[in-house]
Task: structure prediction
Amino acid sequence: MIEQTLDRIATALEAIAARYNGQTPAANVPTHTVAPVTTPAPQTTPVPTSAQPAQQGTPAGFAPPQTGGALTNTAPPVQATFNSPQEMVAYVMEAYTALGAAKGAEIQAVLSGLGYANINDVIPDHYAALKAGIEALKVA
Result:
């Protein structure tokens, strides 16, 4: 079937070429032979023979995927030193003052990374993560 289609295409191309060159096309006489189509054998990847697994590098300019949210690349776990919303807000305001306005504005990114738009919405379960994020800003 494909051979017939290729023959028809070749004949049509010959007719077009003949008209373009001012010749009379040959009458449905193919002037070529069609080679059978073969599929190349699949290539296999050699398996490493050492006991050590193959290492995969990260392409330049790409960071490895984060698996734990916005605070994955922070220092060791930090315990929250506050237990109430009032203490948490006081800590954040003190951190903002210590960081200065430009760097302190990044506290909003920490809040967003935890899924909050407003500091008053942070629940006690996330106090340690909030403090870890803010502490990371202090050392960055």
Residues 1-37 form one domain.
